[in-house]
Write a structure and sequence with these properties.
The chain is of the alpha+beta class. Helices cover 40% and strands 17% of the residues. The protein has a single domain, classed as Translation Initiation Factor IF3. The N and C termini lie far apart (37 Å). The relative contact order is 0.20.
Length: 117
Amino acid sequence: MLDLTVPERLALKGRAHQLKPTVMIGNAGLTDSVLKEIEVTLKLHELIKIRVMAERAEREAILTEICTKLNAAPVQHIGKILVIYQANPDAHKMEIRQMPRHKGKKPLTKKQLGNRG
């Protein structure tokens, strides 16, 4: 399983916020065909959202299984949504940048970032 630093994870969470779930895992759970679809989607996009229709404990197990089998990094697990990242050197190379900082050395809030534009 790929590990991310805290600043990298925060930057990826920010990018994932606008994404829509690209893969859905239903009542059948994590089948081989679903795992293959996740693998293909990760190669194309590097950062994806997955909607899982299962109980919390099962979602945790699915997240761990996906990340270990595909050598991906878990970015976020909120409710029924999982966010996963896998770097792909052949893709358009997503650059992970640090959040912008201001005078107080704290990350800017969403409101402050919106006022910059």
